[in-house]
Amino acid sequence: EVTYESENRREVVLYDAVTGDRLSPIDEVTATELARRDFAGDADVTSIEKIESTGSHSEYRNKELPAYRVTLDHATNPSIYISANRGTVTTRRNNQWRLFDFFWMLHTMDYQGRDNFNHWLLKGMSVFGMATVLSGFGLWVKTSRLFRGSRKRSRGGDAL
Questions:
Q1: Alpha carbon distance 82, 67 (integer Å)
Q2: Backbone phi, then psi, for 155, in 5-degree steps?
Q3: DSSP 94
């Protein structure tokens, strides 16, 4: 594996250590073989796709490109992503992960990139939550018998 800088980008190329032949980018057959070896079960390959770019809603966001997406015929609908330059498994995705990712998006309130929890909507909701809690404490102090009784005693309330 040789890493070098090219046009302000990091490039990775695989070479055969004995012959010096260039091995990357790998082909679909090699990617399929790597995915089958990586999967802990028996499943046929239903599709293989080379990915050159991804969007913000992709399940393969912020990962090394180009890559192969190998989809397997299994109940969990797994996809195994193989780096075309490195020839390694970079990510595994299945239905359980996709459900988690959906709820993570709701939790962080980042409906575009799903990974940024430092944005105005979440900050606004945090301020609103703190205001709600503080106003609740204020109302509790104002209406509590514990605090109302101490105010009467300090004003010279019921004297016997």
A1: 5
A2: -90, 0
A3: -
